[in-house]
Request: fold
Amino acid sequence: MSTRFSLFLLGLLFLLLSTCNKSLQDLSAKKPANNIILLIGDGMGLTQVSTAYYYGEQTPSFSTFKYIGLHQNEPTDKKITDSASGATAFSTGYKSYNAAIGVDQDTIARETILEWAAKNSKSTGLVATSSITHATPASFFAHVANRNFHEEIAADFIKAPVDFAAGGGYRYFNQRADEQNLLTRLEDQGVKVDTNALREDLVFGTRYAFLLGPDSLHSIRGGRGDFLPSATRTALNYLNQDKDGFFLMVEGSQIDWAGHNNDAEYLIDEVLDFDKAVAVALDFAKKEGNTLVIVTADHETGGLSLSSQKVFGVSDYGIINPTFSTGGHSASLIPVFAYGPGAEQFMGIYQNNDIFTKMMNCFSK
Ligand code: MG
Ligand code: ZN
Reply:
């Protein structure tokens, strides 16, 4: 082989590697995604995603994605995951037991992608329609053995490097068994706390905690309005001021609760609302570049099926009848939608904790 041809092959190999994978990580100082936005629709399996296509008024933002994969989500101790071990797999890269928050199966605290981002001079944000201490958001900043320890999770929050938080749950900060007022402690640390409304005029360098309800926020039909897409937009405008980049997690928390309630109307409202937040993230990524957007769920809830309606014993294919097979979670594989630098990595079928590795492979320092 001539030297010139070997050099050509070497060049070709380098080009192939530069699509963002582990080998490149060691070779290149600059990885392509300055920002990562991870949107989690809790309990949103493929059937829940499908409802956006049958009950929504416009083309769902899911249709924008070209890189789509599936993840398998069993925890270490059971067959079917809960939201705590599901989110911990995404946030730390470790599969763990059900109820684990930011700890591995031996209850050892593991660094989360949010903590890594903060350590690498990026800004960080969390948006949820549950309490900020609930399993999914908690798994990104807290390290506790059990998801039910809301007051311990709130205590972890005040030590955590979260620059922007919007959700509910102030009662775990100011109505505690230990009678401490952690909202005051947050304010003493310079965090601007607001328990009434989201504000738009946010100053870069100041940290914000919008805790807009004592526990979870209202459902859409309960009057939550456009909180989720609005808070996502506010977070992005604020975080984008950091030229070192950011990590933002956005959760549509209540898709799961609607599934547990076997309430199709509630579920569809929450999926359509989540889809609006996805649209906000995609608009940002298209405009700004350097942003990896991942949309997925921890697991499916309710065993939802978009069945045909039975009329006098005969299936009527003209009518969709949403039905549920359980009040709990199911074991089905979960779709992953990816857009931006490194998105092609998310094709295929893999484990839930591989999502952490795939995100980290692309996340710039
Ligand atoms: Mg959740
Ligand atoms: Zn659930």
In short: The two ends are 38 Å apart (CA to CA). The pocket of magnesium ion (ligand 1) is lined by residues 42, 83, 130, 134-136, 251, 253, 256 (CB under 6 Å).
